[in-house]
Design brief:
homodimer; alpha/beta; UDP-N-acetylmuramoyl-L-alanine:D-glutamate ligase; four-stranded mixed β-sheet; 16 strands
Chain lengths: ~300, ~300
């Protein structure tokens, strides 16, 4: 199975309003709720692709109960660890007139030392069964900033390859623990290394400890900087749609490709086809399976004649 | 006891952000939750004033469970009726830079015919024990637009005086059922009668069936148009603060004054002192008891030499 970790799970709430006008009142016409947090999204895509996946992280309070209830029919196995505080909400306000989204993210529950210890005990037994592990998203309050570094070391000690998808100081610390793969976007990569040029920044991240770096570059696809070479993969044509969850779908593509022992070009094709099919799907965070199958053959992967 | 009815209860969530910028992401620093809906607010103020109060209406789902949990320590007796759908959330986004609030209100659960019948059975037994009844706020989906008219007739049949505080068509239909008192604000009154001038509009509302009309006029206090005369009550000086809940506090003042058999001028003094003390309190919807006691002596009530 593939294990995804979401320390700061969320109840994702989407409100559609005719137009968002600050400092006025709005009647929300359409309310949608879904289980959220990057690792949960990754696991949903893996499950849809036919991979057995297990989700862990923290869940608590009335919002946490709703997250578990909404997750149950979606098939990833729920190994979430209870926490006394309440799982955070994220509120996305979609302005129907422009299609733009305004996002409000709660900080999440404060995790205590016993809760962290209970999580580690559960995690240690899960990684022993995992073909791969993905560590995804922000840290909730109370969890130490080196948490991902600690989880990377424990997974590697158990022999499980680890992908890290986070940002800021948790990413910096995590990279030093030598994860198999990091998947920053261009902004996260620039923030990490101070360099705006993705190839240079990715090389810098490798020097800091990441075995491989796959940078997601939005409409320009992804760039992989690995011990075996440097590749750039792009979709056949630019697409319009909702980019929510596209990065999480790319992570699912990379992880499943790793577990299947695919070559780097094939892993990147899968990542780009999945993220593009996610942008094309009408519902945020879902992917269009027909578009995925079609795109898989049409992603262009180019090896760059440069040193990694 | 005093019965307050909130058919569309709410979980009121307040997010404080440094500044609300549409179409961007926000990390919410401060998250607050409180049981909401006008009748619940009225009951909290009544309880703080020492009156026994009972709240009814609908409550359901995970948000409804939170509303009940938050309500429990606040002392109004909980006679809320379970509904299969989930109690709505209201999200107030407070922009810390300006103090302005952007409000997002969910529609609320759809109430089915059996649920409405269960509510009516419970209501009929509650009104028999009630010294006064307040019907407050918007109707949830599924409840017929003449619901307040039906509840007014049933309360009056049981001998309980009724105050109606709603807007739009439910207010229009409710007034035709001859409530003892309606408490529109200037905008609701204008919307009801088409007249912008409050005295004329209030007289019109009386002709349509309301025995008495108390119009809340914001900083200009309240105006009562009754069978016994017309009064205007104003606070000693304009105040600055958060007007959330000020109208609900005025309702609590009017209801408690009715139960105590006070004269109209004394009822209006109580309503204005309570609503002003609510604007002055730091927490939205609370009132400052010291300010209330002080203001009570200093509200100016003037009888208008005009026909009601």
């Amino acid at each position: 199975m593939i294990l995804t970790v979401t320390l700061n799970t969320a109840l994702d709430i989407t409100y559609t309003v005719p137009a968002l006008v600050p400092h006025t009142g709005h009647r929300v016409g359409d309310v949608r709720e879904r289980p959220g947090g990057k690792g949960l999204n990754v696991a949903r895509v893996l499950t849809a692709l036919g991979y057995e996946s297990v989700v862990t992280g923290f869940v608590g309070g009335p919002t946490g109960a709703v997250v578990r209830e909404l997750l149950a029919p979606l098939a990833p196995h729920d190994a979430l660890v209870p926490v006394a505080g309440a799982t955070r909400r994220t509120v996305a306000v979609v302005d129907a007139s422009s299609g733009d989204t305004t996002q409000l993210n709660e900080p999440g529950p404060t995790v205590g030392p016993e809760e962290w210890a209970a999580f580690l005990a559960s995690y240690d037994s899960l990684v022993r069964e995992a073909a791969a592990v993905a560590l995804c998203g922000s840290l909730p309050p109370g969890v130490h900033v080196g948490a991902y570094a600690e989880l990377i070391r424990r997974a590697r000690a158990a022999g499980a390859p680890v992908l890290l998808d986070t940002s800021g100081e948790p990413l910096r610390r995590g990279i030093a623990a030598r994860p198999d793969l990091v998947k920053p976007n261009a902004e996260e990569l620039a923030q990490l290394t101070g360099g705006r040029e993705p190839l240079r920044a990715a090389r810098d991240a490798r020097r800091r400890g990441a075995h491989a770096v796959v940078a997601s570059l939005g409409a320009e696809g992804v760039m992989a900087v690995t011990a075996k070479g440097v590749w750039h993969a792009i979709p056949p044509a630019p697409v319009k749609g909702n980019p929510t969850g596209a990065g999480d779908s790319a992570v699912a593509g990379l992880l499943s490709g790793l577990v299947d022992g695919l070559s780097w070009p094939d892993r990147l094709s899968r990542a780009v086809a999945l993220s593009t099919a996610t942008v094309l799907a009408p519902a945020a965070g879902e992917f269009d399976p027909t578009a995925y199958e079609d795109l898989l053959e049409r992603v262009t992967v180019t090896e760059q004649a440069v040193a990694a």
